[in-house]
Specification:
Number of domains: 1
Number of helices: 2
Distance between the termini: 62 Å
Number of strands: 4
Helix content: 40-55%
Mean pLDDT: 90
C-alpha cells in the first residue's frame, strides 16, 4: 500500500496558515508602518520645505534606516506637503506651516 499525498489539502492548509499568520500580525504591521510613514513624511517635509532640497535628495536621508526602505514619498508643492506611505498599510502627510515648520496632518 503506497501513501498518496493529497496536494490539494496541503495547499489549502498552507494557504490557511499564511492567512492566519497575516491576520494575527496585521495590527502590529499597520502600527509599525504608520510610524515609519509618519517619520518619513516629517523628515522629508523638513528637508524639502525647510532646507529647500529636492524630494529625491530628501529620500536619501532615509536610506539605510530600519523599515524606511518600503516607505514611498510624494511631494505636493501646491500644498507644501509631503505624503509618505507604506503600500496597503499606512499613509501619513506632513505639511509646512509658516512659523511652525513641518507638522503632521491629523490622521
Amino acid at each position: 500500500m503506497t501513501a498518496r499525498i493529497n496536494w490539494r489539502i496541503i495547499a489549502v492548509a498552507l494557504t490557511l496558515g499564511v492567512a492566519a499568520f497575516c491576520a494575527w500580525n496585521w495590527a502590529a504591521w499597520r502600527a509599525k508602518a504608520s510610524i515609519a510613514a509618519g517619520f518619513g513624511a516629517r523628515v522629508a517635509c523638513s528637508c524639502r520645505y525647510v532646507e529647500g532640497r529636492d524630494i529625491k535628495s530628501c529620500g536619501t536621508d532615509l536610506a539605510g534606516l530600519p523599515s524606511m526602505g518600503i516607505v514611498h514619498l510624494s511631494d505636493r508643492p501646491e500644498a507644501r506637503a509631503v505624503d509618505a506611505g507604506v503600500p496597503l498599510l499606512a499613509r501619513r502627510t506632513a505639511r509646512a506651516v509658516p512659523g511652525f515648520g513641518c507638522v503632521m496632518d491629523g490622521d
